[in-house]
Predict the structure.
Amino acid sequence: MKEAGLDRHSKEEEDPITLRHSFAEKYDPVTGEEHHNRDEPVTHDDHHVGVLSEETRDALKPPLSQRRATWPTLLWSAMAALNSVNLGYDLGVSTNAGPLLMKDQDLSQCQLELFLGSLNFWSIWGALLSPIVTESYGRRNTFFVAALLFVVGVLAQSTAKSYAFLMLGRMVVGLAVGVGEAVDPMYIAEIAPPHLRGELVSWAEAGVSFGVVLGFASSFCFNMEDPTNWRNMIAIGAAMPIVMILLVKLRLMPESPRFLVQKGRSGEAREVLERIYPEPGVSERVIKEIEEALQLEEAASKAVGWEALLCQPSPATRRMLIVGCGLATIQQAVGIDSIMFYMMFVIQASGIRSDTGQAVALITLGTVKLIFVFVGAKLLDKWGRRPMLFMSLLGLAASLVVVSATIDGDSPLAKMVLIGSLATYLAFFSSGLGPGNWVVISEVFALSIRAKAMSIAILPNRITATIMASSFLSVAKALTWPGFFMLLCGICLGSCLFLYVYLPETAGKSLEEMAAYFAEITGDRSILDVEEKLHGGGGDLELNKIDQREVSTEMSSDQKGFNVANGALS
């Protein structure tokens, strides 16, 4: 064979794929430099310079869809995920601080339930505020607002001398959760290359689970015999928001390219994108795609008004809302948030009394949840949405039956089986209903109603979470612990039946195919007429363009962020 890559005629005769395979072992696929045996001297002459021509080097490079993320992309994603760690810590530390708080402040069972459950209630209002902050002031400043609220709320709780001031601090933290829970996955989704977006966005979900483990581990750091240590446990949660504030104020995190383009600051967006996509010309193409996606989202937001969606929905739209809101409710009705909040009470009810035993049990459970976040992310696409949701719900039901049967057991074996069944409960949730819930909901709604319909679905999810967390101990006391967990088991089985009847498979289906499905089963073509008008009526954004571009077919990045965040926080 002729000199590799240096004879122009031989280079033109072979296509890039052939070249890539021919020279993969001889030349570095990124730099184009020739690999040499370390024992052989490197020699150069006029005919063999040891470096490929620029054209051949480009041919040898892997396609964009196979490139690794640049180090700035990874660093910025990690910084954003720190916010999720903070959210998870607040969730995890509550289960340790709750019993101490109740004892130290002489709270009634109802007062503790209201304290813990109010977080979900106030997060509703924070979530409503979040789009205003992110769209008006940017993603980076939203990190700052959320972190500042966290610091204020955490310090207010840890220094509270009265129940009223304690609840005020909880309100501020709830607002911070609502504002901040969507911004980190949203930010990562907007800076990550499309082929790495799912992997990097999962860092936000993993960050929450890692924060939960840190919160659970707080019992190792403080004397659980001293009831005043709940103040220290909560106060230490201000550390990560302070780091977040420094990252923003020192401008170590850039603004999202999408927000910059939206505000007409394309030059700044280009500077950020060139660090994400170092290849020449790619940043310009991405800016153009962002501009087209923004046009499409603006048209979609005007296609169907609130009145048509809430007061007089068409049959197809009503069916979509039933599926979406039903699935959003199911995610919290199975008891995940309340069990996480009151995990220490469950462990104590099982008879595990030692501080070390309780801490080990909590950390083990948190670690299981963290691991299965990644398992679920892999299996949702591989096995499909419906199978994973059914497997998740049936696994939850089976786990709850075992919890119910063993929670009153006195033997060491019964305690081990109880912890194991709680672990399988968290594993089945994290591998299916946790990450899959909001993914499926976003795929069910047609593009013309998606943004508004997702906002509607948020409400039953957060309201159910509030009710469950605010009544957990009272219901368990009324039904006994075994009866309470059997009630949750019945909810899981009933949810399976609901999804069997109403939920179609959404994996691999375009938004247009899903709209056609709901139109067919309801005999309502009005949703198709709206979609066709949206896609083709304006003449600027044709349907085939929407089908071909991931940036257009996927949900808007702010909605994507909220979806991931809710799956993670649960």
Notes: The chain has 27 helices and no strands. The longest helix spans residues 450-502. The radius of gyration is 26 Å. Residues 243 and 562 are 23 Å apart (CA to CA).
